[in-house]
Amino acid sequence: MATPHSDALVVFGVTGDLAHKMIFPALYAMVKRGTLTVPVIGVALPKWSLDRLHKRVTDSIKHSGGIDNKRAFSHLLSLLSYVSGDYEDPATFSALKAALGKAHRPAHYLAIPPSLFESVIKGLGTADLAEHARVIVEKPFGRDLASARELNKVAKSVFPEDSIFRIDHFLGKEAIMNILYFRFANSFLEPIWNRNYVASVQVTLAEDFGVRDRGAFYESAGCLRDVIQNHLFQIVALLAMEPPAGRDFGAVHTEKARVFRAMRPLKSDDVVRGQYAGYRDEQGVAKKSDVETFCALRLSIDSWRWEGVPWYLRSGKYLPVTATEVLVELKPPPQKLFTDSDPTSGPANYLRFRLSPNTAIAFAARVKLAGKEFVGDQRELYVSDEQPGEEPPYERLLGDAMIGDGALFTREDAVEASWVVVDPVLKHHHRAHPYKRGTWGPKDAGAILAPKDAWHNPALAT
Q: How far apart are CA 326 and CA 351, in angstroms?
């Protein structure tokens, strides 16, 4: 049964960086497509005039690609209104209620620090602004298992689970959605997608820049919390999940949660942490900081399909390239018929998913070279999947939340199950190893690999 469309969008934290960099461009794109026609009410502490908010929106759109449709841009500005107030003050929510007017099914988007989630959610409940409404919560969903449980408890005390949309922009990327489609839309993959044929799986999310102006944030998060527990775990879930029982998004969420529950909780020796040279000199960073800007880990999934298959996850700042890639290495043939196909002399067959900056899928297979000798070379069968007109993640996710489509959002049980995996090493871990900028992190990252394995380093353009 179709759910009713939200009749207003409330953006808490409308004066912040997230709104400037991501939300305003997404709203502009939605207006151009005709998918945003309802009032947009910004809420924040600064005592801004509506004219100042308009200037902020204008600056955002100009920096994100420019104003290429003046009519749509004018319409976006006409939808905006602004409420100034403290999130701890009941008067703020009374003013919001007045600004909503006849709107009774608003979507409340919390583009604010997690420390303010509880105050805003409780304020919405007290002001009777939660009934028939939706709440969109920006990641991170807690910073450990205990805080995630508390956040879920607070949210569910005011909103039902199907009205809570935990937004992770990573899930709105076309390349991430394509993993799910590719796995279950093709029949040739299923027979080999298991422990009998897969030797190992690697997931790398590399960035060639540092923390920039987010030093204070990174001190409270670190790479394990910021990237691996959410982004990379989501990729693993899509790769490792069983076929869902149905086509509804609830069935997909159920299978993803089962993957997280099957993950073996991490131990300190499963994780290698690194910190790039000069991190401690960044603004907002402690002089003796041990926060990791690089993290590599070995993950085990205790399921019938994946028993014994190592999953290697890696992410870091100031690595040689900015790219996200998955490498699924297959086991060698059971009998060595040709000398040059010995896996010790080169990489085994593999599937490679390129997720960013470009999107592609590649199969690596050995092909015989011309001549009498049975000598060959491994070649990639490469399929680029770039498609024009793709919706940016925030445009897609905001639109989905407003129509009640939870397919690309995370569910309470999955969030908590993923924290169970990483919780043991959030405090009990080895010290971060220093590494030079422009390298693939500390050499110690190789210690978590099996003797026969080696890290696959994504190339800049491939």
A: 8
Q: Which amino acid is present at 259?
A: V
Does the domain at 171-392+410-448 match CATH 3.30.360.10? Answer given as: yes
* pLDDT band, very low/low/confident/very high, at 1 (cuts 50, 70, 90): very low
**CA distance linking residue 340 with residue 333, whole number of Å:** 13
* Domain definitions of the chain by residue range: 8-138, 171-392+410-448
- Closest listed residue to residue 21, CA positions, set 74, 68, 61, 51: 61
Instruction: Select from 3.40.50.300, 3.40.630.40, 3.40.50.720, 1.10.3720.10 the CATH code of 8-138.
Output: 3.40.50.720
Q: Is 181 exposed, middle or buried (0-12, 13-18, 19+ CB in 10 A)?
A: exposed
SS3 of 215-250: the string is HHHHHHHHHHHHHHHHHHHHHHHHHHCCCCCCCCHH
| Domain 171-392+410-448 in the same topology as domain 8-138 | no
Per-residue pLDDT, averaged over 261-281, amounts to: 97
pLDDT tens digits, residue range 79-123? 999 999 999 999 999 999 999 999 999 999 999 988 899 999 999
Higher pLDDT, 367 or 15: 15
Query: Residues near 458 by Cβ (< 8 Å), separated by ≥ 6?
Result: 204, 206, 321, 323, 324, 325, 354
Q: Could you check whether the bond before residue 140 is cis, i.e. omega within 30 degrees of 0? A: yes
Three-state secondary structure call for residue 401: helix
- pLDDT, tens only, 432-460: 999 999 999 999 999 999 998 999 999 87
Residue 280: how many other CB atoms lie within 10 Å? 16
Which amino acids are annotated catalytic? 231
Write out the E strands in 13-122.
40-44, 80-84, 106-110
Rounded to an integer, what distance in angstroms lies between the CA atom of residue 270 and that of residue 445? Answer: 10
The residue type of 316 is G
Mean of the per-residue pLDDT values of the chain:
91
